[in-house]
Design goal:
- It is a single chain.
- With 58 residues, this protein is α+β, with helices and mostly antiparallel strands.
- The chain is built from one helix and two strands; from the N terminus they run αββ.
- It has one helix spanning 2-17; strands at residues 37-43, 47-53.
- The chain has a two-stranded antiparallel ribbon.
- A hairpin with a 3-residue loop joins strand 1 and strand 2.
- It is elongated, with a radius of gyration of 24 Å.
- The chain starts with a helix and ends in a 5-residue tail after the last strand.
């Protein structure tokens, strides 16, 4: 029991001390000529309905 408690305490202290990864923000340019976004929703669990956006919303 004491060993299990020691392992749990060590694991918790390592989890708290872990460094946080931070990514640099990126900026993307959307090419209007090649843009499309498709999606599918399930209508009342009966029939899948597909949709598509062909122009970016700005």
């Amino acid at each position: 029991m004491k060993t299990l408690l020691s392992i749990a305490a060590l694991t918790a202290s390592l989890a708290v001390a872990a460094p946080v990864a931070v990514a640099e923000p990126e900026t993307y340019v959307i090419d209007d000529e090649h843009f499309s976004m498709s999606f599918e929703v399930n209508h009342i669990g009966y029939a899948p309905v597909m949709g598509m956006f062909r122009t970016p919303a700005l």
